[in-house]
Structure of Radical SAM domain protein:
Amino acid sequence: MEQILLPVIDNAGPEVKAPSRFQRILFVWLPVRQIFPVGIGYLVNWIHRIHPEISLEVLDLTRFSEGEQLSELSKAIDRFSPDLLAYSWRDVQIFAPHEGDNSLRRAFEFYYSPNLLTRAYAAWDGVRMVWKYRTEFHKKLRFIREGMRRAPKAQVMVGGGAFSVFAEQIIRLLPEGVIGVVGEGEEAMIKLIEGRPLDDERTIVRRGREIILGKKAGAVEIRRAPFDLSYLESIFPGHSLYHGKTVGIQTKRGCPYGCSFCLYTYIEGKRVYYRDPEDVIDEIRQYRDRWGIRNFWFADAQFIPGVKAVPECLSLLRAMKEADLGITWSGYIRTSLISPEMASLMVESGMGDLEVAITSGSQEILDSLKMGFRLEGLMEGCRNLKNAGYRGKIILNYSLNAPGETPETLAQAVESYEEICRIFGPENVYPMVFFLAVQPHTSFEKRLMREGWLSPDYDPISLNPWTIRKLLYNPGPLGELIARACLVAWDIEPMAMGRVVMREIKKSLGEAPFSPKGSVAVGAS
């Protein structure tokens, strides 16, 4: 698609603070499972610091029943009279490739179950789920259209994780005039507010059939980004819904890795920007003292995004330890970069359950997916944590049947799980079985197009039995073996199926000794 620069609205100039073109901005958190709108919290603080004269409000549609959501949106617009409506769209797909998601189970029952009655029920329930997906998807479009109808003079913006991934598909379904934002939105919103050009921001609009893309020239510098929770409370009527729950905090933004199936680099960029530890700790204290929050999720692409990030991570951990916050925290963490010193600081600062994207037990598979770490380093980091006294749960994310998977590499995945069980104890290790979901803007998607698995003109938001099977990558000859193991696991232990899957795969393949540096022979004793 050709890139076309967005038109200049008014060149107020970046050096001088321009007056605001908008007086009242309503942020709308579109319905999703109950999860705190982290991004909106940072956006409203950012805008308020630069333009305190603007009135802001946050409407969280999640806190209302399905039958109330549209009327609550209408009432909020009528009462607040916004001249800028900013929607945040977090989720799109329901066929998420992780255990505990019933739609994945129904898909596998339909494709792989030997029982005709089971397949028939899965087909019926799958139709219901696809219908629900389509209903929810179009409901969100309706909320945006209703906002435009209710406030015809207001500018409308749409952003958020789901929109960022499917922006080119979604913008075609929205009325002309809507401005979409891909990735971070702070600078794009400030420029729109001040009437400055948007051509150097990742914005997207539609004019007829033409899609017009802005091109991002830089990233938002977040080193000093203080957070004022009391201000958020004053403009967010539904904040009490999240008191005492787990809240996300961003300590950094960006990821230097190039994992072939991951979207973080596309959304946040490859350059990493860090927040000041003082601001992070102050934010944690506010949530703890005002909302009773004791559990925090560091909403970073990776807590340790590469060797260059180690000094920053150590600085934050030392500050957290010194602050003695009395909290538990977690996030996505690469154990391959955990030194003995970092392991001690993690334990002493309150790290809880740990989520590790091991992906495979084969270095060859990891390298083909451009994961950027060595298995021996991952194991060494686990040992450092154990030696530091870590007693939490280890959640291992495996993406089985990746391109190039063989019986040998699959057996290595099982043995890598067992090796980590030997380090922490099997009662503390929870393997999570993932499948590589095809996502737009990833090198994995491009690879599957080159190999003929996907058509270049496929629609990533269209779900039917053919596209679902393509988008949940699980090809033969190992696909059926893995799927049957999943079906057994769902019947035996649906809420913790990973352990059963590993056991069933091992039973099918035989045992193979773990070797991070090389391959093994299946069936070796």
Observations:
- The first strand starts at residue 24 and ends at 29.
- Residues 1-15, 517-525 have pLDDT under 50 and may be disordered.
- The longest helix spans residues 116-150.
- The radius of gyration is 24 Å.
